[in-house]
Amino acid sequence: MKKSFLYLGKQPIANSFLSTLSKKSIKSEYFYNLIVSFDTKNYLVSVKNPVNPKIQYTDKYAHRASESKTMREAFKNIAYKLQKRFHPKKIMEIGSNDGVFLKNFPKHKVIAVEPCKNLAKITKNKFKTYPNFWNKKLSKLILKRNSKIDLIFSANTISHIPNIKETFEAIFHIISDNGVLVIEDPSLSSIININSYDQFYDEHVYVFSALAIRNIAEKYNFTLFDVEKTDTHGGSLRYFICKKSSNHKKTNRLKKIINEEKHMGLAHIKTYKKFADRVKKSKIKLINLLKKLKKDNKKIISYGATYKSTTVFNYCKIGLDYFHYVTDTTKNKQGKFTPGTHIPIVPPEKGFNDSVDYAFLGAWNFKKEIMNKEKKYLKRGGKFITHVPKVEILS
Ligand code: DWN
Description:
Layout: E1 2-12, H1 23-27, E2 31-39, E3 45-47, H2 53-56, H3 69-86, E4 91-94, E5 110-113, H4 117-124, E6 128-130, H5 136-145, E7 149-155, H6 164-174, E8 175-186, H7 188-194, E9 206-207, H8 210-219, E10 222-230, E11 236-243, H9 252-264, H10 269-295, E12 300-303, H11 307-316, E13 323-327, E14 345-346, H12 348-351, E15 358-361, H13 367-373, H14 375-379, E16 383-386, E17 392-394
Parallel strand pairs: 4-5, 4-7, 5-6, 7-8, 12-13, 12-15, 13-14, 15-16
Antiparallel strand pairs: 1-2, 2-3, 3-9, 8-11, 10-11, 16-17
Helix pairs in contact: 5-6
Bound molecules: ligand DWN.
């Protein structure tokens, strides 16, 4: 039974950065009610009414996974570890974005699957790339042209696909008998622990836990045999899954993480209701802080036009009344406007200057990288604002 526990208001598509503020483009902005629910049967947390993927993953998809040093290094590191542990002959990535993971493997070994045509175009000259949505039809097509796959990797993608049944069945069809499926996504326990409610938006149809993935795997003839904690995106889990019939042994750290999640209450609705109360308080605190800074005539901007900040801005109803603009290093976000709140996005070279007093950390998940990079700003008295794990000023 699905129980709703969090309402984050009317939200636009997190990735729908506007090119102009013409009446037509504002009128055609798509909004939906962002409600998050918990399934008491399989412990899966999900967005109640998923948006149609065809309007999310277009040829204008904005996010480039290789935009941060942290992620470039993290993908290099995991590619090395997977190669060393499983020695795969054939590797496929579902949701390969700009190729930041696959580029760490020899070209002849890899297959990229990426439905956003603008991203698929980036990898198409380097690797065998399928510019399609992941489903049974594609799985059959790939298998016609290739041998079975030994390692399927998918970071921040499986949680984005509404049809879990088809996703897993298509993987079952193409993976070799002793092959391994490695899924990586922001973890539910981290989100609850650090109150990062902005990890909920249209693309994150599911926010997984080891408890939920274990149930899903079982249902579709797989076994979850290992889980690893990673620091990325505020705390993620990397799940290692194989066919039930294969010979990978369950690890002790899997048992440990499952126990931690049980202990935290991830199998009970009351944990989620308490989280929802903390989210409401965080909203009030953030608005009050911004109001005070505005009253003191401070110039506030936002740092990193993240999809996560789409949730924060629209839920807290904070836009141009507080932020002068948002800075972002991604070329195809620059010159555009934030979804729903219409704040201009400018390159950091232009906007991150001496006139800025406070910068809201939209990309709080790269806090370390950013604080390191912006030492000069901090030295001259510039400050950051964050809402994760609590609303506070960082100086
Ligand atoms: O799952 C998803 C995650 C992995 O990526 C997707 N559904 C969409 C996207 O979500 P996001 O936008 O919240 O992701 P990031 O990786 O937190 O975005 C960081 C943004 O900040 C990028 O646009 C780049 C920008 N940035 C910047 O301007 N200066 C990042 C750094 C580190 C910087 O120094």
